[in-house]
Design goal:
With about 110 residues, the chain is mostly helical. Helix content is about 85%, strand content about 0%.
Length: about 110
């Protein structure tokens, strides 16, 4: 019975993580401005990888591989937002017309 619950929870996390990554792919292709693309890619990528790795945690059970997966999750949660921030910072520093792209939208 416990194995069935682990299988169901692991499958749910894997499917939700996959859907999150699919949303990121769609957002990257549909958005026009590079910083909007970076935002979608960074948030959905971080959350999608996290959810898929949590699904793998449920599939794995309590073994030494569980510790390895937790280390991978911590590594991704630290490095992915930092890398995305640095790439966005370079884009905003290099792009000369950043003020025109970042105008406040009037409703």
């Amino acid at each position: 019975m416990l194995d069935i619950i682990r299988l169901i929870l692991g499958s749910i996390f894997m499917i939700v993580g996959l859907i999150t990554i699919i949303f990121a792919i769609i957002g990257v292709y549909r958005l026009n401005y590079i910083l909007n693309r970076m935002h979608v890619a960074a948030t959905c990528d971080t959350m999608g990888i996290f959810l898929m790795l949590v699904g793998l945690l449920f599939f794995e059970g309590f073994t030494f591989n569980l510790f390895k997966l937790v280390c991978i999750i911590v590594f991704f949660w630290i490095t992915s937002p930092i890398c995305s921030h640095l790439i966005s910072k370079v884009e905003s520093d290099v792009y000369e017309n950043i003020d025109e792209e970042c105008k406040e939208v009037e409703l």
